[in-house]
Amino acid sequence: MQHLDLPPELEPFWRTDDGRTATARAVAYGIDLSMLDDNLRISHTERLRQNDRMLNESEALRQARRQNPR
Amino acid sequence: MKLTSITRRLAEFEVQFVIAGGLGAIIHGSSLMTRDVDVACSMEPDNLLRLFNATQDLHPVHRMTPHKEIFTRHQAEQGGFRNLYLATAWGQLDCLGEIKGLGDFSICLEQSEVLEMDGIQIRVLTLDALIEAKRAMGRPRDLHTVLELEAIREGLRSQH
Most buried in the list A4, B20, B119, B160, measured by CB within 10 Å? Predict the structure, then answer.
């Protein structure tokens, strides 16, 4: 078996021989499938731009927090 | 940060590369966010020279070196890199000579598909190849990506 660096509680999600579908495994892990559906409705280019936007927004928040520490 | 622009820039300068990693996962529909551009690329000097030309005005430095040494034309001409971990004005760019679980650039090229992005063609690892690569990494942070990509693949297959 492949060596994994996963904590034991996560290893079941790595398995593919548990009789579950990939979708069922993802849902059990807590993945929000509606977010995947939303992404699949937009173009590849828009997915990339969306990542850039989120990245820059999170960076702006990080900087604001750095400038206004509590 | 402008990861999309980095990708476009590489294509415009005809760098031989295949998008992998988190950006590849996003292209295939993952909801995760990534802070860098991971590409498999040819480490031959002619390709590294194209890479240098594509990034030189973005002030590329070797971000893993203690003093953030500048990535120079001379280094590109000399070649000999296995991987390049660059920081640029537009964000981080990791150029990998080999992808774990898949192999070197020529194998990644075989396991890639072409996408059109604003009139420019870029290559990205196929969904199957990306899952294989992420599974080979086997890190906790790859688990979420693998689960998302496998669910996406299952959904796509059920449509056909």
Answer: B20
Note the pLDDT tens digit of each residue in A14-33.
888 889 999 999 999 999 99
Residue B148's CB: how many other CB atoms inside 10 A? 27
Q: How far is A70 from chain B (nearest CA, A)?
A: 26
Q: Judge if pTM exceeds 0.90.
A: yes
In this predicted structure, the answer to whether residue A8 has a pLDDT above a threshold of 60 is yes
In Å, how far are A11, A47, B30 from A56, measured between CA atoms? Answer: 33, 14, 18
The CA angle B113-B22-B152, to the nearest 5 degrees, is 65
Task: Tell me, yes or no, if A2 comes closer than 8 A to chain B by beta carbon.
Answer: yes
Question: Could you give the CA distance from residue A27 to residue B148 in angstroms, rounded to a whole number?
Answer: 9
Cα–chain center distance at A46? 17
Task: Compare CB distances from A51 to B33, B115, B151 and report the shortest one's residue.
Answer: B33
Q: What was the ipTM of the complex prediction?
A: 0.89
B143 touches B154 (CB < 8 A): no
Q: Kindly tell me the sign of the dihedral angle through the C-alpha atoms of B111, B9, B70, B24.
A: negative
